[in-house]
Every structure is written in structure tokens, then in C-alpha cells.
Request: fold
Amino acid sequence: MSERGLPQPSGRDAGSADDRGSSLSSGASARLVGERGMSQSPGGGAGPRSERDAPDSRLLVATRNAGKLRELEPMLRAAGFEPVGLHEAGILEDAAEDGLEVAETFAGNALLKARWFHERSGLPTLADDSGLAVRALGGEPGVRSKRFSGRADLRGRELDAANNDMLLERLGGEQDRRAAFVCAAAVVWGGVELVGEGRVEGVIVEARDGGHGFGYDPHFQSDELGVTFAEAERTEKERVSHRGRAVRALLAQMREAGWRVGGGSQGQVIGGGEG
Reply:
């Protein structure tokens, strides 16, 4: 899967679910990164030992984005975890966080964030990076989706609005509105790193539709749903969203690698995240 552009996944290089012999949902793939970035095949011996199992049900969700946290919590609870936000974990906002996303891929950025917050919390840590890849823009904004407008002075809804304005301005009268949301979700614990990836196809619509969601959701109409992500209910969006698919792919890898909530052989098997 191209993490910077929009080319369609194909063959083994795409890491598709079929190629990996997995039952992952369409648009999702997963891989075991292993010991600090060493590529491993799933079940290939780099799975966590008992001391690497999650010591309890807590899983730090490394995001300052309240909308993203709301989207992830139901999936993680359904899998058996107790999601812990950064504020709840006592991790105060640090200016250094703005400099974490320096990789050229979504997977690279997700791993950088997961490592950084894991080192500060000591908890199993999940982080993700996602973005919008628009075909007419050569795959932009891609990994720079959050910073597309260049407005470093804005946060939250104001930043979302500025980014959406920039997107529509750049597209102008372009007839080709094909786009994809792409996400990589990573977990880091005890030296083991795993990554799940997901994508969803759609088109960019001019009018802002719907009051749910965040980011580019009001202008992204999902092919599968026929409505924008901002119009979709949470459960509908979760079913097809790039982030939902990435997290489910990650949970599948965690199960295959032998992770258990609570640690050791007595721990709870990780669920599939279906809420």
C-alpha cells in the first residue's frame, strides 16, 4: 500500500489481507515489526514473551485529538482493553510532540509516536497516523494532512476548517475528486512493535455535509456508505473507516503474536474490537 499517494494496492508488495492469509476486513493489512523495526513475519518467533504481555488491561492511546479518542475507545474496550488518554495518564502536553511526525510514511509516524509516549508512560502504547490522499493532488496532503493549511497557530476545529479550506482551494474546478483515507496504527510494548494498516476509498465533495466526525470527514464521501464520514453514525464509520480497519488489523496481529490482556497464560485473549 502506498502511504504517500493513492495507487491501488496490488500483489504481495501491497500487503493485502489475501496475500497474508488473514481474515482481515477489506482495506486492512498488518505486519509485525518486531524488535525495534526488524521485519518479522506474523507468528515468526518475535511475539511477546510472558513478561511482555500487557500487565493489566490499560492501553495508552497516544493522541491529543478528542475526536480520535472517541472513535477508538469503543473498539479497544470491545477487545478487552481499558483505554487511557494522555491527560488521564498524567502526560502533560509537550512542545516536542509537534516534532514527532517526521517520517515519510504513516507507519513510520505511528511508530515514532508510540515509542515516544511508551517511554514516558511505561504502558503498552497505541498511536496512529492517518491522512487523506487525493489523486488529483498527486497523493497530497498525505502524511502532511494535519499541517496542510500551514496554520501552526490553530488547533482543533479551527485547524480542521483551515485544512478543509485549503483542500477545496487546491482542488478548484478539478473534475477528478477520487481520494482515500489511509491509516497506520502501531503498538509498542516491551521491545515489540506491531503495525496495522487500513484504507477506505471515496470522493471529495464540495459541500460540507454532516455534524459528526472531525478533520476532513465533512468533505469525504465514502464509496461504501454513500455519505460523508461526518454524516455517518459512529458505528457506521467505524465499520468501514481507515482507522477502524487499521486498529482491527493491529488487534489481529496482537492476538497472533500471543498477546493477552492481563499478562501471562491466565490473561484474557484479545478480542476483535467489534463493538
Summary: The first helix runs from residue 66 to 78. DSSP finds five helices and nine strands in the chain.
